[in-house]
Amino acid sequence: MMQKKQLSFWQILTMNFGFFGVQFSFGLQQSNMSAIYRYLGANEAELPMLWLAGPVTGLLVQPVIGAISDGTWSPKFGRRKPFFLIGALIASLALIAMPFSSSIWMAASLLWILDAANNIALEPYRAFVSDKLPKKQYSIGFLMQSFFTGLGSIMSNFTPVILVSFGILALSDTMDNGVPVSTYWAFGIGAIASIGTILVTVLTTSEYPPTEEELAVINANKAKGNTFTRTLKEIKEAFMKMPKTMRQLIPVMFFSWYAMFCYWQYLTSALSLSLFDTLDQNTPFFNQAQLLTGNLNGTYNIICVLIAFPMIPVARKLGAKNLHFISLLLGGIGLMAMPFLNDTDILFTIPLGSGIPVSQIYLFSFGLGITWASMMAMPYQMLAASIPSDKMGIYMGIFNMFIVIPMIIEIFTMQYFVYDLLGSNPINVIRLAGACLVIAGFFSLFVRESEDSAI
Question: Is 437 exposed, middle or buried (0-12, 13-18, 19+ CB in 10 A)?
Answer without folding.
Answer: buried
